[in-house]
Amino acid sequence: MNRRTAFLRQARSDFAVFEHLARQERALVSECHPLHYFQMATEKLAKAALDAAGALTDPYSHVAFSKMPYRLARADVARVLGFNNTRAYRGFLARTAPLFRAIDELSPAVGPRHPGGGPQEGPNVEYPWASRDSRGHATWIVPAEHDFRLLTKLQRSGEGAQVRDFVRVLLERFEIVFTG
Predict the structure, then answer these.
(1) What average pLDDT is seen over the chain?
(2) What angle do CA 110, 159, 24 make, to 5 degrees?
(3) What is the Cα Rg of the chain in Å?
(4) Cα dihedral 77, 40, 31, 133 in deg (nearest 10)
(5) How many CA atoms lie within 13 A of 7 on its CB side?
(6) pLDDT digit string (tens) for 131-165?
(7) If we measure between CA atoms, which residue out of 42, 47, 41 comes closest to residue 61?
């Protein structure tokens, strides 16, 4: 098995776990857990796609999914993914690029507004982070108790749900997109 196939298989498995955890009641499964699997699925999907395009320069970087809107903005990819209008597809990618980046930033290894990443010093789905409470006192925030306000976006209609569906379809049609 080659690296691309390995990343793709793991991405499909991670996405299946995301979907399973996303269906659970939030009282039983905190939002951070399905988001963690979604972030991992998108990262590995992006690495498989970048590898297929000969553009995977650092397989260990956690900044990957946010590169996808630029790499997949082609008419042939739009058609395979079910978009009949290339302009609308490219508009979707441009509008949702910030959401692709926000998904990368769920990883503790990717800091907000750091182009190449950098350690996270704020909200992430894996590790507690230092913060301040409403009175300005130092405190720690636990991901399992934090409201990321992202899972709901991915589950309901709108751009978040479109990104989730985009990931699902790209996982399903990966071989068609990247082997023609």
Answers:
(1) 92
(2) 75
(3) 17
(4) -120
(5) 22
(6) 889 999 999 999 999 999 999 999 988 999 999 99
(7) 47
